[in-house]
């Protein structure tokens, strides 16, 4: 719309400025000739030439110095103008002092009015001055509609309503009666058209047919439309929101995947490190076991020597040995035996897992019979009641090693049953825990403080109470732990001092 209004302004301004310039030229040329010819013939020649070559004039007339119209061109539409007086215009013009100075002195344009030739238009007057005297006036008549018809393109006329105002007076419009006034909807554009002596206001607004007016013909339909559009906006909003959520979730997932990948890579690296460490540990353990084994063996030789020479001493000098000396020899014998047991136990510990026999499946009750048979003298000596549960399970493992386990646990139970115990009692049984069979050895002996629950399974760890009671090497439970772990199981103790102790262990089931 802005462009169209500009186009109209440029065209109207251009046409009118060109016509004004033509008239000024005509007036100049007329008086240029010496002596000038102010004859009707000359006027008609000029007028005809201008009228035919410069469209837009409704008429070009000659007015005498008194302001009376004398000659007209073209004759047909202007004849009844002959004899009319325009002195009223000319008087106001000559009285207006501002018009007498500068270039405007030569030119006058009347306000728009009803023309004698018909329609609304205006007159322009150009004085022909020769020898300091006005010889007459050249009068160009313009009909606004004719000017607009020349200037307005067909499409502009159909697409827009155009109104032209001079001051507040409407001097041109293509607007039809009764059409909707788009101006009300602030759709119009205002422009100023300026050419010598005139300032017109151009108002342009869209043709109602092309831009349907905002007349609500069907309020129900409009409400429905608005409702649908609101719903669509809402759906769109939710879709966008969802999309943003999905995008965020996707970014987060990408991030997570990336993090996980990194974590997995780190884990793999750590696993490899761990594997290497475990292998190193296994190698070191094997090395240590071999060392312990060889050291134990080497230690056995001097023990055997000591024992051998003690025997020889008794054999060769038995009668000569005084009583005190015999006592000392007994001390040496006890210490040597203790040393021998210790070395035997250490040798045993180092053998576990190194010297293996094939694992078999057998009833645990069968094993118990053997163990109890071996411990019978000690059980009797301490008058201990041993109860073996009937429901002992089938187990899978190295029978000899598992016998070692039960021997150690039962002999400990007997050892630490307590000297003053009125009814010494040991119970061997099984219970179900986390879908696993747990075998236990329970006694009502001196018990163990909780702080030692872990420690007692380490080599050479003996409790102060145990040291007072009986002799031992502190290796028995270490052997038990070693054998159970070698069988893929776990061993632990539950106890309270003075309330007895219960040792539990699990074994791995036979692999299929
Ligand atoms: P030890 O040769 O001293 O018996 P063990 O390794 O078999 O060595 O036992 C370690 C320590 O655990 C024992 O010295 C004793 O203090 C304690 N202990 C083991 N079994 C029992 C038990 N049934 N009751 C109380 N204390 C026990």
Helicity range: 40-55%
List bound small molecules: adenosine-5'-diphosphate
Terminal residue distance? 92 Å
Calculate the mean pLDDT score and round it.
84
Strand content: 15-25%
Structural Rg: 66 Å
Find the structural class using helix and strand composition.
alpha+beta
Helix and strand succession?
A: HHEEHHEEEEHHEEEEHHEHEEHEEHHEE
Low-pLDDT parts are 97-104
| Biggest sheet character | 6 strands, antiparallel
Beta-strand segment tally: 17
If helices are DSSP runs of H or I spanning 4 or more residues, what is the number of helices?
12
Looking at the structure, what is the overall shape? Answer: rod-shaped
Textual characterization of the structure:
The protein is α+β, with helices and mostly antiparallel strands. 49% of the residues lie in helices and 20% in strands. Strands 1, 2, 3, 4, 5 and 6 form a six-stranded antiparallel beta sheet that branches. The chain has a five-stranded mixed beta sheet with strand order 12-14-15-17-16. The longest helix is centred in the middle third of the chain and has 99 residues. The radius of gyration is 66 Å and the shape is rod-shaped. Adenosine-5'-diphosphate (ADP) binds next to helix 10 and helix 12.
